[in-house]
Amino acid sequence: MHHHLVEVAPSNAEPKRAPHLKSLSKRMVSTFGSWCRSCADALRVEIQATEEQRTTVAAKEVEDTQGTLKTLDEELEQMRKKLRILEVQGEINLPDVRWRVANAMPDMSKPVDRHLLEQKWRKDGDLDLLMERIHQMRVVPDLLSAMHPSIDVRITANTLGIVPDKAYQIVEPGSFLLPRQTFEPPKIYANVFHQDTRLYTLVLLDADVPDEANATYTTYLHWMAPNIPLSSNHTTRILNLNNHTKYIPPHPQEGTKYHRYVLLLLQQPPIGATKYSLNIEARANANEPTSVHLDIPIVPDRKRKGFDLRSFMREWGFDMRQGGGAHMWREVWDKHVSAIYRDILRTPEPRYGFQKKPDPYSELKHTKKYVR
């Protein structure tokens, strides 16, 4: 009996495909993409007809107008969800689309590019790391009961020359910064995945300020800037953030543990609706915000300590469960904090710590041990 030895490929090796199968696979992908694009074109026509029907109904003054409009809006929302899926599936396997997003050159006017960029943020670990630090360091529930970020917030801080050839470095959520690195405001960037222009309110809080009167900890508001317009077309640093409640550098107190500094981009409520939708996004006019403009008063310095984030959010209609952005980092006291108290706050610097235990031998230590 003859035994024939056959070379077996490792189980994790990519199976070899015959040339005709590769060609068939490409044709199938191309055919599916073409079918999706054709369906999307037909659905756009249907959406346009339904929108015209809605406009006609809205112009009539009849009793059941609101009920009919609600039904049409629900139908349009479902159609637009299907359209979004078809727009993505029709182009998601095109090589130039994949290349653009992989090389950080997405076309944010295209639904497929926005989809791939958002999925990269949600599935490649960046959002997971942020939420892990947010929960691990108890930002939730200490500051908020829940949080579902919908935009990718990134910040950079001054390297102080520590990193060669880099003036600024990206701050990983939850990492430690030196107080000197935040003497000037951090630079803030955001990847936004909605096409309509929405308004956001920036808030920076210290969650770990000693409250001696109540033997606990309270918050301190370091920075606030309302009505920041953001959309998927915004691809640069967020500017003009120091025109409202001005930035005061973090100043963790001597003798305290590390302080959590939490930066939030709170999504302002939509105009004429309870939540954002694809209908709102589709009907938006270019550069006209779909959010309510909020006339939030400047927070005076005397009210920064003890700033109640939950009450503030209830008052102005913010809800982090429906979207927004978040980031955080930590700092501990060092000698450079004293300059902030002296030059910016212009108040005596507090110092905390445990009282020294009385030494029963203190008097004896100052006497001669041996007397002849």
UniProtKB/TrEMBL annotation:
Superkingdom of this protein's organism: Eukaryota
Species per Swiss-Prot/TrEMBL record: Leucocoprinus birnbaumii
Name of the protein: PEBP-like protein
Lineage: Eukaryota, Fungi, Dikarya, Basidiomycota, Agaricomycotina
Signal peptide (from-to): none
Keyword Repeat part of the UniProt annotation: no
Keyword annotations: Coiled coil
CDD domains with a match to the protein in the record: PEBP_euk
Coiled coil: 62-89
Gene3D superfamilies: 1.20.58.1180, PEBP-like
